Amino acid sequence: MKIEHIIFDQQPAGSNWHVDLGPTRHHILLLVVKGKVRYTIGDRTLCISKGEGLFLTQGTWRAAEADESEPHHMYSAHFSDLPLDKLTGFSKEPYLLYRPIGFDYIKQRFSVLNESWIGKMPFYEMISEGILTEILGLVQRELTNGTFSSSRRSLALRLQQYIVQHYREPLRIHDLAQHVDRSPNYVSNVFKEVTGRTPVAYMHEIRISAARELLLTTNMTIGEISDSLGYCDQTYFNYMYKKIVGHPPSHSLKLGKM
């Protein structure tokens, strides 16, 4: 696989952002994380809102424009030289709209991918390709996995929403179980089965995603961010940050001041 571009579009309300009608030069995987955009493909117009994404096969004719009523933020990865047998989960159609149940994690991985690409630290290309491969695999696994009933997927989504709302607090599986009126073992098993990770691992992913945004956009110190996110031990916070993002929080802090 060869990555051509990793882009993070941030457009204000009223923006005239648009893409003229033409064929895509590479495969494109995008994810809208705020607002919405419109893509026109053939005779279809797709409105892609927060939490949704789009895969476009290389050579697909498309046009796009911003929804001027609100700002939009969108990640997109442009890549080539990936065998089609690695993209079978996206079907043989020229495009595919998707809505990942693991949106928060996919968003976090896109954020790290973007940071790796623009930071251009040693071996950034290899690291970026690895992150994008993970994203492509996770999205395709969700698209092709028909083994989960709608009730199990719905339960996992409710649990994810609860964690997102309470991620600064200590996570107790008992509280999760009470929230959905299920046993702790059942909750843990369903969550891991559907999302591929434990509730505690997901909580850390949400915390570290929030930490990265604070490091890049505020003047808070690493210690202040660690405390605000429920980490009593900054050493442990540093460990989790590096484990999930791939480098220590000091690197993101430095990048935010560039």
Strand content: 15-25%
Portion of residues in helices? 40-55%
Q: What is the count of helical runs?
A: 9
Outline:
globular
Structural class: alpha+beta
- Largest sheet, described in full? 5 strands, antiparallel
Mean pLDDT score, rounded? Answer: 89
Report, as a whole number of angstroms, the end-to-end distance.
29 Å
Radius of gyration equals 19 Å
One letter per element, helices H and strands E, the order comes to: EEEEEEEEEHHHHHHHHH
- What ranges have pLDDT less than 50 throughout 5 or more consecutive residues? none
Count of distinct strands: 9
**Major beta sheet, strand line-up:** 1-8-3-6-9
Compile the SSE list and pairings.
Blueprint: E1 2-11, E2 18-23, E3 27-34, E4 36-41, E5 44-49, E6 53-56, E7 61-66, E8 72-80, E9 95-98, H1 103-119, H2 124-144, H3 150-166, H4 173-180, H5 184-195, H6 199-217, H7 222-228, H8 234-245, H9 249-256
Helix pairs in contact: 1-2, 1-6, 3-5, 3-6, 4-5, 6-8, 6-9
Plain-language structure description:
With 258 residues, this protein is of the alpha+beta class. It contains nine helices and nine strands. It has helices spanning 103-119, 124-144, 150-166, 173-180, 184-195, 199-217, 222-228, 234-245, 249-256, and strands at 2-11, 18-23, 27-34, 36-41, 44-49, 53-56, 61-66, 72-80, 95-98. A five-stranded antiparallel beta sheet has the order 1-8-3-6-9, with helices on one face. Strands 2-7-4-5 form a four-stranded antiparallel beta sheet, with no helix packed on it. The longest helix is centred in the middle third of the chain and has 21 residues, at 124-144. The two termini are 29 Å apart.
